[in-house]
Amino acid sequence: MEKTIKLEVTRYASERDAEPHLENFEVPFRPDWVVLDALNYIKDKLDGSLSYRWSCRMGICGSCGMMVNGEPKLTCATFLADYAPGPIRVEPLPYFPVVRDLVIEMSDFLRKLEGVKPWIIRKEEKPIREGEYLQTPEQLDTYKQFSMCINCMLCYAACPVYGLDPLFSGPAAIALAQRYNLDSRDQGAAERMGILSQHDGIWGCTFVGECTKVCPKNVDPAGAIQQYKLSATKEWFRSLLMPWGER
Amino acid sequence: MNSKEMREVPAYTEFHPRWYRKRVSTYWWLWKWSYLKFVLREISSVFVAWFVVVTLALIAGLSRGPEAYAEWQAWMRLPVVIAVNVVSFFFVLVHALTWFNLAPRAIVMRVGGKRVPDAAIVGANCVAWAIASAILAWLVLRGG
User: Complex ipTM, two decimals?
Assistant: First the structure.
């Protein structure tokens, strides 16, 4: 007989349920299967109504983030074998509203992400005929780590500050702001500082540090936020000591 | 042209099915060891503040003469105060060590284009701490 493993999956349908509950499924236990494979098996063979997000199944798209046994994980990179003999509990990311089953509502994150202006801001664009903005490998290296973010929101699911204060900008948005601040082609740091030096920005962070631990791309959002705090403090002292200086 | 209907822009409503929102429990910091560690680290600040109070009381005692200083010494000998100080000492150690361990997250130093490794920053902080403590210990103990 084929070996199986039990999955406890959150089910919630707004038209039917007052609140989410767990449903058990027995799926084949295969050493090469990840949790996402097991969910796809359930949808194909056991219950076609199960809803969840996924796309690339290779850790790039950032769609399949869920809680696996209480830890935020990309389900495409989380092997069943690591949880044998089971059961494995699969739940939607916490702190976000649940739309259905494992699908969360992410507008809040997208609004925050857009709010920090994660794109290159120039005071003056140079004409195309003058060529591209060049960058040395060292200049690339200063921000590259923060540019690896795939917007999977695992860091939000790990952040108790975001859970307690939904207004907090959150790890990924601040890390991406820092990614552009550190980019030698960007001139928008002061503009972003105005947005993120508020209470709900960098100062909302109490440095729990879990965002960095759960990040599947080693972005280190906690580091980005602390570095941001340091530069905000320096900026504040500078404006205090040299109020006539260029802001 | 049928004028009126075309010009009016209907209010846009985002699609919004009934969502389920879960409240975060007051005891969220008991869920995970890492959250509990974080809370203990934050609470350690209270004990740092306690030592500030003790030091201020010492200075106040010294400035008001030998009697006030003797009073402060008697207060320091109370078993309750000794117990609080022992607990505080451990929390202050936790405070210092966690602070140094987190320092490399905030400080990015580059030497020769390469980022200085975390261990070097933690190490440098700890060495500076040890030297400062040794100098203080020498200043305090050399009289006795």
Answer: 0.83
